[in-house]
Automatic annotation (TrEMBL):
Residues 76-187 form the Endonuclease/exonuclease/phosphatase domain. Keywords: ATP-binding, Helicase, Hydrolase, Nucleotide-binding. Pfam families: Exo_endo_phos_2. Signal peptide: none annotated. The keyword Amino-acid biosynthesis does not apply. InterPro entries: Endo/exonu/phosph_ase_sf (IPR036691), Endo/exonuclease/phosphatase (IPR005135). GO terms for molecular function: helicase activity. It comes from the Eukaryota. This is ATP-dependent DNA helicase.
Amino acid sequence: MIITESWLKSIGDDAKIEELTPSGYKSSSFPRLTGIGGGVLPVHRNFLTFINTPLTKFKSFEGYELRLQHPTRSIKLIAIYRPPPSKKNKFTTAVFLDEFEDLIDSYLTDQQQIILLGDINFHYDSTTDNYVKKLKTMLNNRNLRQAIDEPTHIKTHTLDWFILREDDTSIYGIQVADKDLSDHFVITFTIAIGRPKVEKKNDIQKHQTAGS
């Protein structure tokens, strides 16, 4: 589970993080370093190994690479939270798309499975918007697709994205549901991960012959 816009602080929110982490799970909070709001909180099973790396070069959004180590494969989940653009932060949609293009280009040659997801605060459903057209072209030219085609927010816009490779068939059951937890909806999905091969050990029976 990945919670975007967690609003958790770097100091003083240990009790909240513990409350959000069920028994048998681990969490790693990535709070916004300056100001309030933002932040990402990944929560995962104890037996899974994640290597978490903040993506600090981008200014218009908060990004975190979560690399899942599994015996059968390695999966990179890129969790993103993009603050709404404002006169104060000056993070225009044009600036965001330039940085987002740099982000996806940095993973194009990666041989591992790549999933980009998060709260983008960008109306992907506005099909006549020139920025949306530019984004769709950007994804199509890179053999990527945005899999969410329904509202993810109470105001009926698609603000949360789930981007994967066009030919990725191991991800299925992507669903959007209003769990009445916040103004954003919950996105769930399933990744087919094969079980590691178990080497069979042949039993060796030792026969002892008694001398006459």
